[in-house]
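Q: What does the assembled structure look like for these inputs?
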Amino acid sequence: MSKLTDVPKRILIGRALRSDRLGETLLPKRIALPVFASDPLSSVAYAPGEVLLVLSIAGASAYAFSPWIAVAVVILMFTVVASYRQNVHAYPSGGGDYEVANTNLGPKAGVGVASALLVDYVLTVAVSISSGVENLGSAIPFIVEHKVASAIVIIVLLTLMNLRGVKESGRFFAIPTYVFVTGVFAMIAWGAFRGLVMGDNMRAPTADLEIQAEQQGLAGIALFFLLLRAFSSGCAALTGVEAISNGVPAFRKPKSRNAATTLALMGGLAVTMFCGIIGLALATDVKMAEHPAHDLLRDGKPVGEGYTQEPVISQVAAAVFGDGSFMFVLLAAATALVLFLAANTAYNGFPLLGSILAQDRYLPRQLHTRGDRLAFSNGIVLLAGAAALLVYAYGADSTRLIQLYIVGVFVSFTISQTGMVRHWNRHLRTETDPAARRRMIRSRAINTFGAFFTGLVLVVVLITKFGHGAWVSLVGMAFFFVLMTAIRKHYDRVSQELAAPEGPSDDSLRPSRVHSIVLVSKIHRPTLRAVAYAKLMRSDKLEALSINVDPAETKALKEEWERRGINVPLKILDSPYREITRPAVEYVKSLRRESPRDVVSVIIPEYVVGHWYEHLLHNQSALRLKGRLLFTPGVMVTSVPYQLRSSELAKQRAKKHQEWNAPGAVRRGPVDKTQQGAGTAKEPSGAE
Amino acid sequence: MSKLTDVPKRILIGRALRSDRLGETLLPKRIALPVFASDPLSSVAYAPGEVLLVLSIAGASAYAFSPWIAVAVVILMFTVVASYRQNVHAYPSGGGDYEVANTNLGPKAGVGVASALLVDYVLTVAVSISSGVENLGSAIPFIVEHKVASAIVIIVLLTLMNLRGVKESGRFFAIPTYVFVTGVFAMIAWGAFRGLVMGDNMRAPTADLEIQAEQQGLAGIALFFLLLRAFSSGCAALTGVEAISNGVPAFRKPKSRNAATTLALMGGLAVTMFCGIIGLALATDVKMAEHPAHDLLRDGKPVGEGYTQEPVISQVAAAVFGDGSFMFVLLAAATALVLFLAANTAYNGFPLLGSILAQDRYLPRQLHTRGDRLAFSNGIVLLAGAAALLVYAYGADSTRLIQLYIVGVFVSFTISQTGMVRHWNRHLRTETDPAARRRMIRSRAINTFGAFFTGLVLVVVLITKFGHGAWVSLVGMAFFFVLMTAIRKHYDRVSQELAAPEGPSDDSLRPSRVHSIVLVSKIHRPTLRAVAYAKLMRSDKLEALSINVDPAETKALKEEWERRGINVPLKILDSPYREITRPAVEYVKSLRRESPRDVVSVIIPEYVVGHWYEHLLHNQSALRLKGRLLFTPGVMVTSVPYQLRSSELAKQRAKKHQEWNAPGAVRRGPVDKTQQGAGTAKEPSGAE
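A:
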């Protein structure tokens, strides 16, 4: 606000950039893939490790189950991708899971999905950044030694970047994402070549460790339960898949088809990388444990608290490329960067979803206005604060945070797919063209399987992870659900209260005359301007009103009023206790009592100043009086501003703010008038 | 604000009390004495101890100098009391030292005195509470073991009490003060009786300790310097004397004379108690040291860090009445209570001084309005925060805090007395009546001696205490001085910029026509009311304006507008980026460009809601638009409020706040219109 705070703020948040008006920024597939897929692709950096980690509970021999779990994850991934390809065709408007649920299953389901997604965004930030820090730490030990601090520093940097309104740029996303994908594929190829063709014996840094099984000789139900848990953890690879379905409007035309193709591409890349990393991990004898300090043994003794468990991707890279080699460091850096970009995705998705929810009056409606800096800023700070809290509470341990993560994802998957089944049922009722019907029936089958499978996974996740942290997510969802329901209820109640009656308006809205009062404390330019404006308005009665808080001053005011020949009667009210507000409000009320059908127009000269501290020094009694008058029926309150020279500053600041770039703008795509007009968009009711 | 925060707030701060309108609360002398004198009287609880403490640096033998130092303090006290008796006669308006300095020595001296007094108030809280905790601790060891925490708890309690607006009641002050004074006199009398008549050998708890002199065999300049330092410390007894001169308006008539009598009474009581305690301390062999852990020896060995040095008054009480006896506990409790009341004095004096400074535009002018709860609350929280910080930083050690204390007091004493000399000089120039001249010459002589003596003490204090902490006070004073000067400069600049030109007003203030615009987002009651009111105003042109952020909605709005037959033209502005503010402001500007002499009146329907969270949900775009329009010249912005049912709550809250009791109200006395009109009171300029 002030010059004082402006300089550091400008350094941190930056001068607002001129928006290039979104219009020409539609994304080609090769750019859309990294923009939307950095989140799901980056999850292969931690998901394979999580599978091994859970299996290790039954000892190293259980690692043999990991290919089967990988197969299950691959099937699930194909199911989800196939299902969402139906979504993007059926709902090209970018509403994503929320819109699907809302339209087909009703508002409760919609709010449920939205709550799950909001929690998910928070966790995307927390998990991705924690995992990114772990990956970066495999190359730079300092970072992993100060894990929580590093993670929070990165959250702060991302927050500042997004508050600053840095527009997501395709290239910014493309380079690290493609380096990451290429790097992982090179690692898989080179690893396969060395292992299968050259017969090298590649050894991961942890190859010589032994795992002490926490639960020896698991079998039957217990083993099955453990495998389910490992599968749940592997499902972390699925997070972020729905991002594309939220971003359809940002694609080049044909939007839906391009989005569907990108989705398939993303799915293919993800499963290949996931399986490749698991395969290499088995080949290089990676050892990971849930509690490495106790469960990993070196020469028969636990490695102890000082041991840092490296992420599976970095262990494999060390085995294939050599620890500290150029490719190892490059891959570690790319992995970390992609994970940070995945976190940034949440910074963009959160306001985007917020805007859609605001449109449906589940959130304050200023979130709907594009570029409402204040609203977006609050959202971003909320997101960052919640993520930082989680990172702090869980010691930036991605393994522990992942326990919370997958619930939200699968809640929205399941509800959304169920909604899609309803969608096709509805359309099938009216569709008569056999070819179209066939397509619909096929789509319905895919979505039905999707709903069933993701629902099953959700149950598995809930059962296996509830005590490990999933309950925290559920609490978060319940919080958002209750909050949004309450906000919507409030807007509905107000809207009902405000509804204009049909037919001739009732009498209370039909005032007969206006009695205008100009508030005067002394004679200066603002007062003279206010009096001049008031005269122009030709109200039925016009008088100036001054509150006598100091007889000497009031006397001087009266004399000057006469001397200047201001032809408006000056009324003086006594105020023995030096109050301004009370006598003025009581006078207005007395006028209303005398003639209830009159409207009282109170005209207040106001200074406009440029600095926040000047606000503290001025207009306080004017503001208070205005605040009180607003509660008095039959009153209109007019500010006649007088711009002081310093106000020029504030004006320029306000302009700058207006040219700010809202996060999520690229994903949202440009405003398409025809589509917008035809869509289900509802402007929240209320005075603008 | 909200129900949610209201409940705990009401428990802590309480329901605002109905003010009994101050009018009938003039104080008789027997009540005024405890109200105003709890501060100076309470200082005898620590001042004698400080003298002994400093002397101990040269060993126990130096205690022999203490009677001489007591004599010096007594002379100083008589001088100051005599001087201030002149003040209360000459300046009965309650402006105190600030008014005297401001009137006679100019605004810089006035601001200097005010800065010193503000720092002093902070220190009064810090020192009194620390000392009170030490005294209470002599009866309840738990308190002294958690000294800092106890002191801060008491600061918090006093702060809540004052935020709550508990009116100072005479009785509340009178009982502990009179118990304290009676108790000390009883102690002196009983001690004298036991010692002189009965020949008892009373022994203080520390009588058997030895003092290891930090500086052995001091003589000459060094000894003199030490004696000066001891004297400086003894001057702590003088703090608070000026309180009565600030409170003259609160006395019964004849105000000045009653105030002068009370002052004399207070001085007499204070010196008697001071000397009595020093005498008893010598008679009972009290041993106090600056660093008791090292310098006090028991059987030749230092007592060590665990030793708690009891205040002198409690040691003497233990010797005279017996440790733990009823009188001992009663006196300890009364002492602590009087010290806390002394701290409370600052809570009342701070806003009182702030109000006077605000009147002269050195502080934000809302401080001048009686019962501006927000302004007072900020002042109280500032005072409490600064005091708590000092208490924390100095470990609630009254001895260390006292080093900071006396500077401010003697700065204001000296400046004020110098001002009084000028006052008499000025009056002597015009006075011809020989009797009056004689009186004036006598008064001038008293004030001259006062100025000289207090100035000398100030120099002594600065020299002996600068390094011990007095510099902190000087930094604080400089801070207030710079702040207040800047605020005054700002008000002056604004006032100059606003000054209405004499003669016929210039053209820019003489608009010709009004173009009214009612902002419409949808048709509901607030809109209809705003349109009806706008029609009443009979402006030259009236139109309704809607921003098209959603074509479908806009179309619906247009149709309903037609259907309802609202006979005001509806203008639609396109807004491809869903902005509200920018298109509206640009439209207004374009109107102004077309006809620069027109005034644009923007009428905004607004909801009035009752809870702070409802504010978050409504009117955001209206508020933002209003904010931006105020920067546009030639615009008037009218709010037409529509009161939602929930607004009733907020209205009641606002009423409650209005009936709040401002701290310092009793001291300030009622508003006396004749006096106020005749005084130098200047209402700060600016719109109310």
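Residues 507-670 of chain B form a domain with the Rossmann fold fold (CATH 3.40.50.620).
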